[in-house]
Specification:
The protein has 735 residues and is an alpha/beta fold. The protein is built from 24 helices and 32 strands. Helix content is 35%, strand content 24%.
C-alpha cells in the first residue's frame, strides 16, 4: 500500500510502498477513502523537520537538556548515536481520515466489517491506504448522506467542538473567532449551529469572505475593523468568548483576543499560537484564558485510546469519540458545510503536490486539501520485497529474520549485527509498514512485512531475532522454536511462570535450537575483566548493583502489568549480571518496596539474592533519583578485593593496597556487539550456547519470583532444577 512519510532529519516527504499494518487487539483495519491534510499542523511539522540540527535544538531546548544529561552519563558517541537514531525514524503524517472497515481486532464487538467510519489520531489515522485504528479513535458514519470526503474532517470537527465547549459558548452569545483556516471555518459553523452570533477575523480576505458565506455574522481581514465590529455587534460590551484558531508563533492573536473580549470573558486558544500575554489588559478585564486540548477528554490517555477504556457518559459527557460522533451528526443534519472548504482532491500517488500547496511552494490558494485513495476488495499486502532474490548465501551463513524493529532494535541491535560477518538479513517484520520499510532499506533486508508468519514460514531463515513488546515474547519464542529456528529474544524472555513452562517445553522438543536472551551486560569488556578479577576467589562474593532508573509515569507502557512492569522488563538484566559474577544460580530472592505515595509505581525497591555457592547480591532500583547521577554502579567484594564498575565506562579494581582503573571517555560498551558475535559463533561452529539455556531459565525464574515477593511481602525460593524437571515432564505440545 502507499503511505505518506516524512524524513525527521531533512523534512523530505515521500510516498512510500509499505506493507499494510498489523491488526492489533482492540482495533479495526480501515481501508481509507479520504484523509485531510491539516495545513497548520502538518506545515509546522514539515518546517520543524527541515530545520538544521542546531535550529531543532533552539526550537526544543527541553530536549537539549536530556541530550546533555545523556552525554555526561554515557559519553559523546552514545549520546550522538541516540540523537541520530531518533531523527532517523520516518514520521507518518496525517491524523484525520475516513474509510471502510475491512477487519476487526480481538475484543471489538460493536463494529461490523463493511461499515463506514471516520478515524482520528496521529500515528493511527495516517495518510495511507489502510490504517489500524483503536476502537475509541473512530466513529461510525451513520448517515448515507455523509460522504467520505466530508467525514474525513471529523477529527478537525472534534477539535473545533472541544474548543467551543472549552470556551463555554452558550445560546445567544456573541463569539469572536480569530483565524479562519479549516479549524476556524468549522468552529464558526458549530457556533452558528449552537445559536451564537459569530464575528470572524483572518488576514486572508478570501477566508474572511468564505466565513461570511458559511454563516458568520461578520468577518474581516483588518484588526482595527475587527475590534470595531466586536464593539458594534455587542453594544460596546465586547465578545462573550473568543476562540483563537490560528497557527502562528506570534502572540498578536492572543492579545487581539483580549482587546475584543468583554469583562470576565473566556479566551480560548485552540490553535498553536504565541502566548506572551499582555497581563495588564487581561488583569483589568479579569479574563479567563484557557487552552483547548485536541479532540476532547480521552486524548493522550493511553488507557482510553489504546486500551479502549471509555469514560462513563454520566461523568464525562463529551469524550473525543463522542465529539466525533456529534460532528458527524451535524454533517448529517446539514448544519455544517465542508464541501465549500475543499479546494483540492489529490490522489495519493501525487500527494507531494498537496505539501507544495500547504508549504506555499505554489501561488495556488489552498484551504481544504484531501488525499484520496483507490478502493479495492482485495486483501491489502502484508509484505513488500526490497532486495534481490537472486543472492545465494554461503554455506554456514546465518540467515536472520527480525520480528520487531523499534527504536532499540534499529539504534543498537541491528547496527551491531551489521558489523558481524556471516549474517545475512533476510526479512524484517513490525506492526507498522512504515517502520518495517525503513528498517529493511536502512539495514539491507530482502523484504519487509507486518505479518510475523512471513518470517516464521520462510525456509531461508534459520535464526530469528525477537524485539517486540514484552507481552509477545513468550509466544513468539515458542513459535520460532516450533518452526525450527534458532532464537535470540530481547529481554525479558517471558512474563509469567506459565509462559516460562511453555518455553521450556518448546525447547525440549527443539533441542538442537539455540535460545539466547539479550542479557548483554555480561559480554561487555569491563564486565569480563571484573569477573576475571574475582575468578580465583574461593569464598562467596558480596555484590551490590545500584540502578538510578529514573521516574516514569504510571501510564508508561513499561509500567503496565500486562507488559511485566519494570521488574521483569529491566531488573532481569541486573539479576543476570549478578548471576554471571557469582558463577552460580539464584536460590532465594526477597523484594522490599518503598511505600507508594501515589507518585511512583512500586518501582523504588531492593532485591536480595542468595546464590547456590553462598554469594549474596543486592539490587537497589530507584525511580526517585536524579538523572544527572550515573545510572548503574556495581560493587563487588570478596577475597580481599574490591571491584567497582560505573555505568560500563569506568572500572576500578583493588587488592593488596594496589589499585588499577580504566575509563572509556567517548562511549559505553554494554556488550551488544560481543553478545551477537558469541551467538553467531555458536550457530556457525556449534558448541555450547553463550548462556546455557538452563541458566536463562534460572535468571528468568528468579526475576519472576522477585516480582512475586514484592506482591506477597515474603521471600521466595528459586528452585530452578525442580522447575525444569516439572516443565519437561508435562510433555505434549507447548500451549
Amino acid at each position: 500500500m502507499k503511505q505518506i512519510l516524512q524524513d525527521a532529519r531533512t523534512g523530505e516527504i515521500a510516498v512510500a510502498e509499505v506493507p499494510a499494518p498489523q491488526l492489533l487487539p482492540g482495533c479495526v483495519l480501515v481501508r481509507v477513502a479520504a484523509s485531510v491534510v491539516s495545513a497548520g499542523t502538518e506545515r509546522a511539522s514539515s518546517e520543524f523537520a527541515s530545520k538544521s540540527l542546531l535550529s531543532k535544538a533552539k526550537a526544543r531546548p527541553d530536549l537539549v537538556w536530556g541530550v546533555l544529561a545523556k552525554l555526561q552519563r554515557d559519553g559523546v558517541a552514545s549520546a550522538w548515536n541516540a540523537v541520530r537514531s531518533r531523527l532517523d525514524q520516518p514520521l507518518a503524517l496525517g491524523y484525520s481520515s475516513a474509510g471502510t472497515v475491512v477487519a476487526l481486532g480481538e475484543g471489538v464487538t460493536d463494529v461490523l466489517v463493511g461499515e463506514r467510519v471516520a478515524c482520528a489520531g496521529a500515528g493511527y489515522a495516517n495518510h495511507a491506504e489502510v490504517a489500524c485504528i483503536p476502537r475509541l479513535l473512530m466513529a461510525k458514519i451513520a448517515s448515507p448522506d455523509v460522504s467520505f470526503d466530508e467525514a474525513a474532517f471529523a477529527t478537525l470537527g472534534a477539535v473545533a467542538l472541544h474548543g467551543v465547549r472549552t470556551a463555554e459558548a452558550k445560546l445567544g452569545d456573541t463569539v469572536a473567532v480569530i483565524g479562519l483556516g479549516l479549524l476556524g471555518q468549522l468552529t464558526l459553523q458549530i457556533l452558528r449551529a449552537a445559536g451564537c452570533s459569530v464575528i470572524g477575523f483572518d488576514l486572508n480576505p478570501q477566508r474572511a469572505a468564505l466565513a461570511q458565506q458559511l454563516g458568520a455574522d461578520s468577518a474581516c481581514n483588518n484588526a482595527e475593523t475587527f475590534r470595531d465590529l466586536c464593539q458594534q455587534r455587542t453594544g460596546g460590551r465586547g465578545a462573550d468568548a473568543v476562540l483563537i484558531t490560528a497557527e502562528t508563533a506570534s502572540s498578536e492573536p492572543v492579545n487581539l483576543a483580549g482587546s475584543v473580549a468583554r469583562e470576565r470573558a473566556i479566551v480560548c486558544a485552540v490553535g498553536t499560537v504565541g502566548m506572551e500575554i499582555q497581563r495588564r489588559m487581561f488583569f483589568e478585564k479579569e479574563l479567563d484564558f484557557r487552552i483547548s486540548r485536541s479532540y476532547g477528554p480521552g486524548r493522550y490517555d493511553s488507557a482510553f485510546e489504546q486500551k479502549g477504556h471509555d469514560y462513563p457518559i454520566g461523568y464525562v459527557r463529551w469524550t473525543e469519540t463522542r465529539n466525533m460522533e456529534a460532528f458527524l451528526d451535524l454533517l448529517a443534519g446539514a448544519r455544517i458545510e465542508v464541501r465549500a472548504m475543499i479546494t483540492h482532491r489529490i490522489p495519493v500517488e501525487n500527494a507531494l503536490a498537496a505539501y507544495d500547496l500547504i508549504n506555499g511552494k505554489t501561488s495556488e490558494a489552498a484551504l481544504g486539501v484531501l488525499i484520496t485513495y483507490p478502493q479495492s476488495d482485495s486483501s491489502p499486502a502484508r509484505r513488500v520485497d526490497i532486495g534481490s532474490e537472486t543472492r545465494v548465501a554461503a554455506a554456514g551463513t546465518i540467515r536472520l529474520g527480525v520480528i520487531g524493529a523499534g527504536t532499540f532494535a534499529t539504534s543498537t541491535l541491528l547496527p551491531a549485527i551489521k558489523q558481524i560477518d556471516g549474517i545475512e538479513l533476510v526479512g524484517v517484520c513490525t506492526a507498522t509498514g512504515a517502520r518495517a520499510r525503513h528498517a529493511a532499506e536502512k539495514f539491507g533486508f530482502r523484504y519487509c512485512a507486518t505479518d510475523e508468519n512471513e518470517i516464521l514460514r520462510d525456509e531461508r531463515v534459520n535464526a530469528v531475532l525477537i524485539a517486540t513488546r514484552h507481552n509477545l515474547h513468550a509466544r513468539q519464542v515458542a513459535a520460532a522454536l516450533g518452526a525450527g529456528k534458532h532464537v535470540y529474544c530481547e529481554k525479558p524472555l517471558c512474563l509469567t511462570e506459565e509462559e516460562l513452562t511453555d518455553i521450556v517445553r518448546a525447547r525440549a522438543q527443539a533441542e538442537r535450537m539455540v535460545v539466547m536472551v539479550g542479557f548483554n551486560r555480561r559480554f561487555a569488556t569491563m564486565a569480563l575483566r571484573l569477573r576475571a578479577f574475582f575468578a580465583g576467589v574461593k569464598e562467596p562474593l558480596l555484590m551490590h548493583y545500584r540502578v538510578n532508573a529514573g521516574f516514569l509515569k504510571a501510564d508508561h507502557w513499561t509500567q503496565d502489568p500486562a507488559e511485566g512492569e519494570r521488574i521483569l522488563g529491566e531488573v532481569c538484566h541486573f539479576v543476570d549480571f549478578l548471576t554471571y559474577l557469582a558463577g552460580a544460580w539464584p536460590v532465594r530472592v526477597q523484594t522490599h518496596a518503598l511505600a507508594n505515595n501515589g507518585q511512583y509505581s512500586d518501582d523504588n525497591l531492593t532485591i536480595q539474592l542468595e546464590f547456590a555457592n553462598g554469594s549474596q547480591g543486592t539490587i537497589t532500583y530507584a525511580a526517585n533519583g536524579d538523572k544527572a547521577c550515573s545510572k548503574e554502579r556495581v560493587e563487588v567484594f570478596g577475597g580481599g578485593g574490591v571491584g567497582v564498575l560505573e555505568d560500563f565506562r569506568e572500572l576500578e579494581l583493588s587488592r593488596g593496597g594496589r589499585k588499577q582503573s580504566e575509563r572509556s571517555r567517548l562511549s559505553q560498551d554494554k556488550g551488544h556487539r560481543a553478545e551477537w558475535e558469541a551467538f553467531a559463533r555458536t550457530l556457525r561452529e556449534g558448541g555450547s550456547s553463550p548462556i546455557a539455556f538452563e541458566e536463562i531459565v534460572a535468571v528468568s525464574l528468579a526475576t519472576l519470583r522477585a516480582l512475586a515477593s514484592r506482591r506477597l511481602g515474603e521471600p521466595m525460593p528459586v528452585d530452578t532444577d525442580a522447575f525444569l524437571a516439572a516443565a519437561r515432564s508435562q510433555g505434549g505440545q507447548p500451549a
